[in-house]
Design goal:
By secondary structure, the protein is an alpha/beta fold. The chain has one domain (6-216): 3-Layer(aba) Sandwich (Undecaprenyl pyrophosphate synthetase), CATH 3.40.1180. The chain has helices spanning 14-22, 25-45, 65-88, 103-116, 132-145, 152-158, 204-216; strands at residues 6-10, 50-57, 91-96, 122-130, 169-172, 191-194. Bound molecules: 3-methylbut-3-enyl trihydrogen diphosphate (2 copies) and magnesium ion.
Length: 224
Amino acid sequence: MNPLNHVAIIMDGNGRWGLKYKNSRNAGHKAGLNTVEKIIKGSIKNKISFLTLFAFSTENWKRPKKEINYLFALLENFLVNRVEELHKQNIKLKILGSKKFSPKLNKLLNNSEKKTSKNTKLQINLALNYGSKSELIDAFKKMKKNKSSISEKNLNKNLQTKNIPDPDLLIRTGNTKRLSNFLLWQLAYSEIFFEKKLWPAFNGKDFNRIIKDYKKIKRNFGKI
Ligand code: IPE
Ligand code: IPE
Ligand code: MG
């Protein structure tokens, strides 16, 4: 049985779900938040230490302003209403990606990280305005500036995911098989599950089913 320490998820399919059932992409984003709650619970039940959620990519700025504004309003709401409870549950929140949002949201994000920084049960990494290519470029720039030698270890230390082990398992919902600029370096040896269900339809049972299948995989890491 494989240990499971870190699960990363590309939460895709909100828009299609919303259009199909509520005639609105934004309604799909709202429904997607319920799935986030279910998967946080499922992660605790499965004793997972790190849960990384891809919530907004550097490419998602190309979407209509109305949708972007709605997404960030949802996020603000979530932080205002849910962080206290997450904190009580000993959950740590960390943001991946560059915090270039409204001053109000930046402050909320910083405060949420600070408040929960000592928590130890589960670390949730929320990837927001995150892109793997720019993360890698930034890391190489820092290494050049610090005159550090180019090595795997030094690169790891300069990524936003420093101190976070690589994901054991990547799940992408929404019936699409691509990485969309997510954790390209860190996923080098992750087990990848592409799930047909759209994110708002995904639930704890689906999560458990994937975890069960993951645990049975023979992970080789190049060996036999
Ligand atoms: C993923 O769902 C959530 C974000 C990118 C914010 P989408 O909004 O991409 O949903 P689809 O893929 O259009 O259905
Ligand atoms: C990936 O989904 C980003 C997030 C889930 C936040 P997208 O829906 O943006 O990916 P593409 O554009 O279809 O590849
Ligand atoms: Mg999508």
